[in-house]
Design a protein that fits this description.
The chain contains 13 helices and no strands. The chain is mostly helical. It has one domain. The protein is globular and about 55 Å long. The relative contact order is 0.22.
């Protein structure tokens, strides 16, 4: 796997591994305050390094500042808001199936906004990734316990989760626009600083009565470790990788989020790993290998649509 693809894979794996940690943290700290503290922590840690280049390291145009602001708004603030509140009004199974469409939504957004061409091979890879992520989120027997069944889903809850999917897809598109023109550390700092400002009102409104001293020390350690992994290292790796990979292909790597999350849940939370999980994981990995070119299907005589990798890369490389 080439370096850009490896960066993208490691980035999404870290995000997936942070999910079980986040479940533990938000049991002690209000969710929006958790996100606000993480944004602020990463921004403060990066400030000395990101700003040492002076104005020369900052976005140089109004277009770049607009893309940066939209990246923070959609990919960091609204994604957290939509997903957190969507999960309150729909089942985890329904939310998992809906979020399995992130690769397809990313490819669609890249085609509409960035004018990237989606080849037949990429469409097949997207289909495999969606199929795999759907399998990862389905429970044995085709359902869940009565309290978590589809009967508990609401249109509003599902719509909020769809909003999270769209937000994540737009994050990939706007990050693609910025990669290469703004240093990754500076970009990560600015995105987190803007997100902290945007999230502050919601965090303050929902943190009434919260007592930090009542949170066990090990929870704060877990918060810092998971926050740095998903909010700092993962973002830097993503920015480095996306500068060289079309957004439609990069979206395939989001399949590693549920894959890594399931594996982490099995290893650290003691959850059961089923045949459906194994099948889903294989589909996700195969889809990523196919979409990134690490695995190539035999070419048929006279058929060239699947060999459009060079054409895909002709899209904007300014992220």
């Amino acid at each position: 796997m080439r370096a850009p693809s490896l960066n993208l894979a490691l980035s999404m794996t870290l995000v997936g591994l942070s999910v079980p940690a986040s479940k533990v943290v938000v049991a002690h700290v209000p969710p929006l305050l958790t996100a606000e503290l993480r944004f602020a922590m990463v921004a403060l840690l990066l400030a000395p390094f990101a700003l040492r280049g002076g104005r020369g390291s900052l976005p140089a145009s109004a277009r770049d500042w607009t893309s940066l602001s939209l990246l923070a708004l959609f990919g960091m603030v609204l994604f957290n808001l939509f997903l957190l509140y969507g999960l309150r009004a729909t089942s985890a199974v329904a939310a998992g199936i809906i979020t399995s469409t992130i690769p397809a939504m990313t490819a669609l957004s890249a085609a509409v906004i960035l004018r990237e061409r989606v080849s037949g091979g990429s469409i097949a890879a997207i289909a495999l990734a969606v199929l795999g992520m759907t399998a990862l989120n389905l429970r044995p027997g085709g359902g869940a316990e009565p309290h978590d069944s589809l009967a508990g889903d609401t249109l509003a809850g599902n719509a909020l989760v769809v909003g999270a999917v769209v937000s994540e897809a737009l994050y990939g598109v706007f990050a693609r626009r910025l990669g290469g023109r703004v240093p990754p550390l500076t970009l990560t700092f600015l995105a987190n600083a803007l997100s902290a400002v945007m999230m502050a009102p919601g965090a303050l409104a929902t943190s009434g009565g919260f007592e930090p001293a009542q949170v066990p020390a090990w929870v704060w350690v877990l918060f810092v470790a998971s926050g740095l992994a998903s909010g700092l290292v993962a973002v830097v790796l993503w920015m480095r990788g996306i500068a060289h990979v079309p957004a439609s292909r990069a979206g395939l790597f989001t399949g590693l989020i549920p894959a890594a999350g399931v594996l982490a849940a099995v290893l650290f939370l003691g959850e059961e790993f089923t045949i459906a999980h194994a099948a889903g994981l294989l589909c996700v990995l195969f889809g990523i290998a196919l979409g990134t070119g690490a695995l190539r299907l035999p070419a048929r005589p006279g058929f060239t649509a699947g060999r459009s990798g060079r054409g895909d890369r002709a899209g904007p490389r300014g992220r």
